[in-house]
Amino acid sequence: MLILRLNKSGLPQTWITVEEAAKCYVQEKVLFELGETKKVLRGGYNNLGVQSQLELSSIIACDGKITQESGKISLCNQYLFRRDNYTCLYCAGVFQASKLTRDHIIPRSRGGKNTWTNSATSCKRCNHAKGAKTPEEANMKLIAVPFVPNMYERFYLMNRRILADQTAFLSSHFSKRQTWLV
Ligand SMILES: [Zn+2]
């Protein structure tokens, strides 16, 4: 489990471990909590026999700056496939990651760039069929518009074990979901 750390304005700052979050609580740095999921850590017993416990929220806010490193991810297949919900953007089939490839919509050999908007998740069969053609030339229509993930979407993409309340928080700020064209 990772805990989403926000700054005091509620902007996502970083994913932190339970141990790092516990440190924020102990040092009284937590300004507010937004997560519904609680992680309870149990500590030692006091001389009355009561065990200490620390309840951590799945989303916490602390003081701190948003830097250029916050939410920085590079375009890689892992994030691309997750952006496209493991769906081939040509045949609409859903596949395991091992069966998927990155298709450059305008092929690299034709000057297409390796960017989020020129990349589509594609099954191996569709990628092979498309080859070095554009979708028009191959007569293969994209079923969704490839997009650049915004900050909230990037935080979503980078945590594969994300909790439901963390997803709900981030997804309320998603710029636009994919526009499905068919
Ligand atoms: Zn396909």
Runs with pLDDT <50, length 5+? none
Major sheet, described briefly? 4 strands, mixed
Topology as a string of helices (H) and strands (E): EEHEEEEHEEHHHH
- Classify the secondary structure makeup into a structural class: alpha+beta
Shape descriptor reads elongated
The proportion of strand residues reads: 15-25%
Assign a percent range to the helix content. 10-25%
Question: Which whole number gives the mean pLDDT?
Answer: 92
* Ligand names: zinc ion
| Total helical segments | 6
The total number of structural domains is 2
Radius of gyration: 21 Å
User: Could you give the distance between the termini?
Assistant: 36 Å
Biggest sheet: strand arrangement: 2-1-6-3
* Overall strand count: 8
SSE order and pairing:
Blueprint (H helix, E strand, L loop, with lengths): L1 E5 L5 E6 H9 L3 E4 L4 E8 L5 E7 L1 E4 L14 H7 L16 E5 L14 E5 H7 L4 H4 L12 H7 L6 H8 L11
Parallel strand pairs: 1-6
Antiparallel strand pairs: 1-2, 3-6, 4-5, 7-8
Helix pairs in contact: 5-6
Bound molecules: zinc ion.
The site of zinc ion (ZN) has 8 residues, from β8 and α3.
